[in-house]
Design goal:
The complex is a heterodimer of chains A (388) and B (151).
Chain A (H helix, E strand, L loop, with lengths): L2 H24 L8 H23 L1 H4 L4 H28 L2 H17 L8 E3 L7 E3 L4 E3 L12 H14 L7 H19 L3 H14 L7 H15 L1 H14 L17 H14 L3 H16 L10 H4 L2 H18 L15 H14 L4 H10 L14
Parallel strand pairs in A: 1-3
Antiparallel strand pairs in A: 2-3
Helix pairs in contact in A: 1-2, 1-4, 2-4, 6-9, 7-8, 7-14, 9-10, 9-11, 9-14, 10-11, 10-12, 11-12, 11-14, 15-16
Chain B lengths: L2 H30 L6 H6 L3 H18 L10 H5 L5 H10 L4 H17 L6 H26 L3
Helix pairs in contact in B: 1-3, 1-7, 3-6, 5-7
């Protein structure tokens, strides 16, 4: 038996598994909150089956010179199926009261901030990986304890931002030429003054991480932080401090010569502070930066490592903040404004009130939060049922 | 965003690139090996000229960087627009560690032949191209495994 016959057998097996899932979904009556997810998954399975049939008939699987490509094609289809089977279907079929509550929270937030209706995700309160967003299925995962834990809710805005950035490919349009020009100038400056191979390498890695494509994750992560700050204001920075203290991260990693997908927590704080200044929250930015500095004094990490600003240049970060600010306005998102905060009427106010309460009375905050979340189901959440 | 969120982004980007490279390679191979196509396949196949140009650019990039581990010494125009991510370059570099200069000269010949056109390509050239496509795919698979926490 040639290997292509084995691959053909695997495609038939995969098709059968798609069919099994379709059968399961066809008798499953989804909760109204997840009927769009149900429909999306059903469509994805149908598309995968269509591609399987196309592969089975194609040249790639019937001509030896193309068998390696047939295997890649098959693997792509396995990936498509796996996302549905291991992520989509379990979330759909388990959708319970906790998930409902999470979805109601997201809907209420989305309504308040002017988030596009068609991008509003379903929430699963099953996350074992903190907050995350899956753009194809349009799902956001949150940790179960955060359903009634207001302090972490700014990070929900970060995930909504990622869904927006994935859907609006032109949101950061105009940034690439700025990045290109910036690094060209830096390279010329370094050539003039003379630079070490180490410095050249740091600059190259920074350019790759600030760029686009698979390597360009920093701009994306910064942009999501900036959008979230635009929407929820100072509480995003406070939550960032909380998260960094919870995780015990080195706030300056990565610095040269390291390179990781996420930018350094310190750089993220700097970026968030830049957006707070654009929102005219100068005092709040200063207060958070003071707390951050005090936190650093308690740790091993109280000095910027060499090359940190090569990776995270202030100029580029400020430009990105301004660009995101403009894009948010263009998108019609509602900016945070101190003047419009009220104590109870809306979630953005509630989130910021929570952080104000926490900062004023950290040891008794928990009782405040208990009371604050108790009435949400019958007040704010009830205002925004699922639209189908 | 958690690690899984960014991994999902990285996977989507790399999978899209891998598919692009594969489509170009298939377009080349269909002509090179004179494989007859159905009407349906013809309709979706990548244009041969586009395929040749795209693959030539990729190979040109590899010629310039495969022996240069330090990204700081890479030509600037590649840093603005990488044809292949650094992970894939590293994978290819490791795979050809023991034949470094020979691999580079093979890549250079391939680049020149892609410039001339499909008639100048040899079987060995097609294998070299396949090698690049497989490396890109391998990295996409590796990211997917991390995303799904498979082993």
């Amino acid at each position: 038996m040639g290997i292509n016959t084995f691959i053909l057998g695997l495609t038939a097996d995969l098709d059968r598994r798609c069919e099994n899932l379709q059968a399961l979904l066809s008798v499953y009556k989804p909760h109204k909150d997840v009927s769009r997810l149900h429909s999306r998954i059903t469509t994805m399975l149908a598309q995968t089956r269509k591609k399987i049939r196309s592969l089975q008939k194609s040249n790639t699987v019937h001509h030896p010179e193309l068998w390696s490509n047939a295997l890649s094609d098959y693997q792509d289809l396995v990936h498509e199926f796996t996302v549905v089977e291991q992520l989509g279907v379990p979330i759909l079929t388990r959708y319970n009261k906790e998930d409902e509550r999470g979805s109601a929270l997201v809907r209420a937030l989305a309504h308040q901030i002017g988030f596009p209706q068609d991008l509003i995700p379903v929430v699963t309160a099953t996350s074992d990986a903190y907050y995350w967003a899956e753009e194809n299925l349009r799902i956001v995962g949150i940790p179960a304890s955060d359903l009634k834990g207001v302090l972490g809710w700014p990070d929900l805005l970060h995930e909504l931002a990622h869904l927006l950035l994935a859907a609006r490919r032109d949101f950061l349009a105009g940034f690439s030429p700025i990045v290109k020009e910036y690094f060209k100038e830096q390279r010329e400056r370094m050539a003039d003054i003379g630079s070490s191979p180490h410095e050249n390498r740091a600059l190259a890695i920074a350019q790759l991480r600030w760029g686009e494509g698979q390597t360009g994750t920093w701009r994306l992560e910064f942009a999501a932080d900036l959008v979230a700050t635009y929407l929820v204001g100072p509480s995003y920075a406070w939550q960032h401090l909380r998260l960094t203290m919870n995780h015990g991260d080195d706030p300056f990693t990565p610095s040269p010569p390291e390179s990781t997908s996420h930018p350094a927590p310190q750089a993220r704080l700097d970026e968030v502070a830049a957006m707070l200044r654009l929102l005219k929250c100068e005092q709040e930015a200063k207060a958070i930066q003071l707390h951050w500095a005090n936190m650093l004094h308690l740790t091993l990490y109280d000095q910027l490592p060499p090359g940190f600003r090569t990776y995270y240049p202030t100029e580029l970060m400020k430009t990105l903040a301004e660009l995101v600010f403009t894009s948010c306005q263009r998108e019609g998102l509602v900016p945070f404004a101190n003047e419009t905060l009220s104590q109870s009427a809306d979630l953005i106010s509630l989130i910021n009130a929570a952080w104000l309460e926490f900062n004023c009375n950290p040891t008794t905050y928990v009782s405040w939060e208990n009371q604050a979340v108790q009435t949400l189901d019958t007040t704010i959440f009830a205002l925004h049922p699922m639209q189908n | 965003m958690s690690d899984s969120g960014l991994l999902s982004y990285e996977y989507n980007e790399l999978a899209t690139l891998a598919r692009q490279l594969k489509d170009w390679t298939i377009a080349l191979k269909q002509v090179f090996y004179k494989i007859p196509q159905s009407t349906e396949e013809e309709a979706v196949q990548a244009d041969l000229d586009t395929a040749l140009r795209g693959l030539k650019r990729t190979v040109e990039f590899l010629c310039d960087v495969i022996e240069v581990e330090d990204e700081g010494a890479w030509p600037e125009h590649w840093l603005t627009s990488l044809p292949l991510p650094t992970l894939v370059v590293e994978r290819l570099r490791k795979a050809h560690t023991f034949e470094g200069p020979l691999y580079v000269s093979r890549l250079e010949r391939l680049r020149d032949r892609l410039q001339v056109g499909i008639s100048s390509l040899t079987r060995k050239d097609i294998e070299l191209i396949d090698d690049i496509v497989l490396a890109t795919n391998a990295d996409a698979n590796a990211i997917f495994r991390r995303l799904m926490r498979w082993g």
